[in-house]
Specification:
heterodimer, A: 273 residues, Rossmann fold, seven-stranded mixed sheet, five-stranded antiparallel sheet, 9 helices, B: alpha/beta, Fumarate Reductase Iron-sulfur Protein, Chain B, domain 2, FAD/NAD(P)-binding domain, 3 domains, five-stranded parallel sheet, 16 strands, 34% helix, globular
Chain lengths: 273, 455
């Protein structure tokens, strides 16, 4: 059993848990993920590692309360325990001194992008960060990221804070040259980022979060087309060359179970009155 | 053996075969001729002394009977259900020459279930040694190696990547063929032998083999199975509604999607389901799909019925339940709807040509024979290959181009000293009992290795 050491509400329906799981913390590197089963009836869900503290023996992750499993996870408190955590999974990010690195994080994935920002900063890179969300209220970590980035840009879909949408990035890339871009966030965001960076020839690494069941190569549910080849995000990724990813297919595959997820979530809400 | 009626069982996940009553078991045991030179034993990969346990059963010494089986086989309730006895022990039975062979598997199951309903007795163990062994994968091979070595007095840690022990027994074989309560209790028995189970631990990621060897393990057995699904590589294979058999079965068996929404993991079953492939996994997938409410389930196989690799018993079960078979056909592409979900499948007809390297006649496409089927769920059950994680993270471990681990002899010795391997990770996808047979040999070799090292 793995105790929840701390819990933070980052924004509406976005929670952060720090969990004691020393053998996973020992091995975890930025870019990797864990699989978690919170309770016997819950789904196995992949969660990108957003914090690693080897001295304390903890890892942290953030999640969005979207379905029944994540809503139940959101009800857990500091001191509660999680039974099944498997990890670290996936390949670690390539972290070294590239020069100028542009980190882009959207939605709940602002949490793991912060870990990337830290890692690239520590490796001596000049880091610029873009964080985005649907609306102002869903932004977090701006201050933390500021201390490690030369510049932080904010973008919201509704324009309630910072730039509206990501099109401003074109100007950013015209103004200065970046050696690498790493992006984490929803598929539509990743797709836009890649469309923007491609004409500038900036190597762009995206972290993909397709549906996974086992997280270690068994189910093939997380298969994605990269450069026309079938890859499993869990064992071949989760990071890929964004300019080669078939985002439309990925988007479709992520939506396959939406009706079931809605049903399960509604029934759960109803049972709680 | 009594079975649930097809029209009833095709819509539930309860076990199909109901098992012998005591009376039936005794009657079957009484048919055994007790051959002085029994041929059945030679057909058993773990060499159970079959006539001896049948004699004990005949004398109603059920406790002694199950103990006799367990001298050679730690998972009798599983093997009594899923072993292909018709190709092994029962194939050699002399009674088979004049009529029906003795139903050895059903008798094994009877004794195992008798014991399970009364609680296990833990057999005597050898005095503890100083040897410590890491066994990777709690499937049939790993459970066998772990049980054998624990009985010989060694300290055993069994590493399992999933949250439950059993491997393919828990994620692959459906409830109606092998109830999960049985896997649970067989794993419980292995624990009672003193095996320490480390679940949620993916060797290669959580720990690597070189780390385990450095940190106090004297020997390692790799039984990580063949868990990587194969796809066909035809256009449209990534459309929604197309599952690998592994994904489909993991959702249904391990995550209990058949109890959705009580259990959170969803599964989507359409009206027209096709399963590609003809092995046991294809049968399991097809029969599960039917139970999940499909109107029609059709198996599409590129050879003829004669070549279907599934157990005859399972093919008959599937046919009784109303599973359709489209033989001598293979998909060439999948066609999607506006949401990116599969709506049709284009196939091509096949004819059988000359035998290929497997000895079976090679299917060859018939030009111009393409046809389209309306489908909304596709399950691809064309085989599984070993998971590459251990191979990629263990320097010096020799593997084949198919990703299987190379072993030196039937003891399972690999290219690294003290590291052994067996089961599907060595042979490619095979049966539960063959993995257990290899596990027994590897356990013996590991024991000898440990003793030679002065443990």
């Amino acid at each position: 059993m793995h105790k929840i050491v701390s819990k933070v509400e980052l924004a509406d329906k976005i929670k952060w848990l720090e969990v004691n799981v020393p053998h996973v913390a020992e091995k975890s590197r930025p870019g990797q993920f864990i699989m978690l089963i919170a309770g016997e009836r819950n789904e196995r869900i992949p969660l990108n590692i957003a914090g690693i503290d080897r001295n304390k023996g903890t890892i942290s992750f953030a999640f969005n309360e979207v379905g029944k499993t994540t809503k139940e996870l959101g009800l857990l408190k500091q001191g509660d325990s999680l039974e099944n955590i498997l990890g670290p999974l996936g390949n670690p990010s390539e972290i070294r001194n590239f020069g100028k690195v542009l980190c882009v994080g959207g939605g709940v994935m602002i949490a793991p992008i912060y870990l990337q920002v830290q890692a690239f900063h520590e490796a001596g890179n000049d880091v610029t960060t873009v964080i985005g969300a649907r609306t102002k209220k869903l932004l977090f970590f701006e201050d933390k990221i500021k201390t490690l980035s030369r510049k932080v840009h904010i973008a919201t879909d509704d324009g309630s804070q910072g730039h509206q949408g990501l099109s401003f990035m074109k100007n950013l890339l015209q103004a200065e040259k970046f050696d690498r871009c790493v992006a984490m966030g929803p598929v539509v965001m990743l797709k836009s980022v890649c469309e923007i960076t491609k004409p500038f020839g900036i190597p762009t690494i995206v972290t993909l979060t397709p549906i996974m069941v086992d997280g270690m190569g068994m189910c093939g549910c997380c298969r994605v087309s990269v450069g026309g080849q079938m890859k499993f995000a869990c064992v071949d990724g989760p990071e890929f060359n964004g300019h080669l990813v078939d985002f439309e297919e990925l988007n479709n595959r992520q939506r396959v179970f939406l009706p079931e997820e809605r049903l399960s979530s509604l029934l759960w809400e109803k049972s709680r009155g | 053996m009594p079975k649930q009626k097809p029209e009833v069982r095709r819509r539930n996940f309860k076990e199909v075969a109901l098992g012998y009553t005591e009376e039936q078991a005794l009657a079957e045991a009484n048919r055994c001729l007790q051959c002085p030179q029994p041929k059945c034993v030679g057909g058993c990969p773990v060499e159970i002394e079959i006539p001896v346990f049948i004699q004990l059963l005949k004398e109603k010494k059920y406790g002694d009977g199950i103990r006799k089986i367990k001298e050679k086989n730690s998972l009798p309730a599983v093997c009594g259900r899923v072993c292909p006895q018709e190709d092994q022990c029962q194939k050699n039975c002399v009674m088979g020459k004049v009529g029906e062979p003795i139903s050895i598997g059903r008798l094994e199951r009877f004794l195992a279930d008798w014991e399970r309903s009364r609680g296990f007795q833990v057999p005597e163990k050898a005095p503890p040694t100083r040897g410590k062994v890491g066994v990777i994968g709690a499937g049939p091979a790993g459970l066998t190696v772990a049980a054998e070595l624990a009985r010989l007095g060694h300290k055993v840690v069994l590493f399992e990547a999933l949250h439950l022990p059993g491997g393919v027994l828990v994620y692959g074989i459906p409830e109606f063929r092998l109830p999960k309560s049985i896997v649970r209790s067989e794993a419980e028995y292995v624990k009672k032998l003193g095996v320490d189970m480390s679940l949620n631990c993916l060797v290669g990621r959580t720990y690597t083999i070189p780390e385990l060897l450095k940190n106090g393990f004297d020997a390692i057995f790799i039984g990580s199975g063949a868990g990587l699904p194969q796809f066909m590589g035809v256009p449209g294979e990534n459309l929604g509604g197309i599952y690998s058999a592994n994904e489909f079965l993991i959702r249904v068996n391990l995550m209990r999607s058949y109890d959705f929404p009580e259990y959170d993991t969803p599964i989507r079953i359409g009206k027209h389901v096709v399963v590609i492939g003809g092995g046991n996994v294809a049968m399991d997938s097809a029969r599960s799909a039917l139970r999940l409410g499909a109107d029609e389930v059709c198996i599409v196989y590129r050879r003829s019925r004669e070549e279907l690799p599934a157990r005859e018993e399972e093919i008959v079960n599937a046919e009784e339940e109303g599973i359709l078979c489209k033989l001598l056909a293979a998909p060439v592409r999948f066609i999607g709807d506006e949401k990116g979900c599969v709506k049709a499948m284009e196939c091509i007809c096949m004819e059988l040509g000359q035998p290929d390297e497997s000895g079976r006649r090679r299917p060859c496409p018939v030009k111009g024979s393409e046809f389209v089927m309306d489908v909304d769920t596709v399950i691809v059950a064309i085989g599984r290959t070993p998971n590459p994680i251990i191979q990629r993270t263990t320097e010096g471990l020799e593997t084949t181009k198919w990703g299987t681990i190379v072993t030196k002899d039937d003891s399972g010795k690999t290219s690294i000293e003290g590291v052994y391997a067996g089961g599907d990770v060595v042979t490619g996808e095979a049966t539960v009992i063959s993995a257990m047979g290899v596990g027994k040999k590897a356990a013996k070799a590991i024991h000898e290795y440990l003793m030679s090292k002065g443990n």
